[in-house]
From TrEMBL, chains A, B:
Lineage, top ranks: Bacteria, Bacillati, Actinomycetota, Actinomycetes, Micrococcales
Stretches of the chain forming a coiled coil according to its record: none
UniProt xrefs under Gene3D superfamilies: Tetracycline Repressor, domain 2
Keywords on record: DNA-binding
Species the sequence originates in: Paeniglutamicibacter gangotriensis Lz1y
UniProt superkingdom: Bacteria
GO MF annotation, one: DNA-binding transcription factor activity
InterPro entries: Homeodomain-like_sf, HTH-type_TetR-like_transc_reg, HTH_TetR, Tet_transcr_reg_TetR-rel_C_sf
Protein name stated in the entry: Bacterial regulatory protein, tetR family
Keyword field contains DNA-binding: yes
Residue spans binding DNA: 30-49
DNA sequence: CTAGCACCTATAGCATTGCTATATGAAGAG
DNA sequence: CTCTTCATATAGCAATGCTATAGGTGCTAG
């Protein structure tokens, strides 16, 4: 089983944990499998890491360093909010590429007991947000901005992870990212109450689309397609 | 231990599970404690619910019905986006008031394996969003709006739950809520350089028409024509 | 009334889990 | 050579989810 070359047992345990965690599709990984794969016995694990969570913490710490390192690679662009955007994207990418690590870090929520990793991620984001605040790009207190962005970021990442790979739609990430960032930024104010169009019939909607199409010609349809499309649109607008 | 009045064992199991879940501060609840409190033995549990998850599913179903019921109490205001806002608030409130139930419902994420509860919540939200789309309040395809809002909603709720009660700041919820809803709504344009206003109105109208067509099928087009028409409509709503 | 039948519950126990009390080995210090 | 210290192994405990099997319990058919 233990195909590892001779390394210090501590390292072999870490390596085994990472490997099993990566191939277990999110199912719980037992200490026995880990020690077996590492070619060690139980007390060795507990001698080095205290308990199972200690081992996972160590594993996560390694993963988190990669995460932080990838954040640091992103040089400041001079536009702090763009840096925040990059950070969001890195966060999502990390979650998608290492879902098991990500779930160990952010997946298990306990009431009234925030995980260390959340605090660490918050601190990382806080740095960038502070820079945005300094240069007057922020609309709300930095702490609020950080919490809102991070909450949405984690929510989106968890949702993407939970979706089958085939139907993952990353527009979800971009859209939500820009939504929360725009909301906390002073660059563009959020307008509130508006004038709803109370009518909801097919005819009215068709007419509206027709009018909109006349003032701007989108490129998604060819000329012949557009011609036919408008013809049908006209027919629909006639009556219902 | 079993202080319950004589009820059918199935009900006593449910009741015991709820009670233990509520008093366990998020720690795992064992089947033995449940059966002990219910005054039953193990096979009874497995006879009625299949396995532990089945029991929790049943518990959650009850909780979810409360959740849905509280949603339904909110009469439509005529402003669909306000209804969406109420729904968000109800979601958060439910999570705060019953964190253990909430965590069973939305807390355990598995890669590529979305939970039923997420799908159900999505369907509930989808209804309201569709109404917003029908009346031209939506900026993006309803499916995208729903996912974005729900992801942020869950993310915010999880974050609030994980925070100590004393320092819970509900502004986080309001802020994020308005951010994502504003982003998907056409009532107040996001100052986003990527989406010029002219095409935006086309997109809005196309989305509204699409939603309207789904709720009433007009007879002016044949089946094949309608199919192609919808295909093009979809392409137009995708934005450019 | 009784025999059969379906449904529900209990006895007892298995395999796996995280973890540990205790012992054994090796390596340096005196 | 002895003694201490660190690291690993032997063996096993208590708790977990779950089940093979058997025992009631009530209903319907004869």
């Amino acid at each position: 089983m233990s195909l590892d070359i001779q390394l210090p047992p501590r390292e072999r345990l870490l390596q085994a944990a990472v490997e099993l965690l990566a191939n277990s599709d999110g199912a719980p990984v037992s200490t026995r499998k880990i020690t077996e794969l590492a070619g060690v016995t139980a007390p060795t694990l507990y001698h080095h890491f205290g308990d199972k969570e200690g081992l996972f913490d160590a594993v996560v710490a390694v993963g988190f360093e990669q995460y932080v390192a990838s954040e640091m690679d992103l040089a400041p662009t001079g536009k702090p909010l763009d840096d925040v955007r990059s950070m969001w994207d890195q966060h999502v990418r990390f979650g998608i590429e290492q879902p098991h690590l990500y779930l160990v870090m952010f997946g298990k929520v306990r009431p009234g007991n925030r995980s260390n990793r959340v605090s660490e991620a918050e601190a990382l984001l806080r740095e960038k947000i502070d820079r945005a605040a300094e240069s007057g790009h922020l609309n709300v207190p930095p702490a609020d901005a950080v919490r809102s962005i991070l909450a949405a970021n984690i929510g989106v990442t968890l949702m993407l992870i939970s979706e089958p790979e085939t139907e993952r739609n990353f527009e979800l990430s971009d859209m939500t990212r820009d939504a929360v960032i725009t909301a906390v930024s002073s660059d563009a104010g959020i307008a509130d109450s508006a004038t709803p169009v109370e009518t909801s019939s097919v005819v009215v909607a068709a007419i509206a689309l027709n009018a909109a199409l006349e003032s701007s010609n989108p490129q998604q349809l060819s000329n012949t397609e557009m011609k036919m499309f408008l013809e049908w649109l006209h027919r629909i607008s006639k009556d219902s």
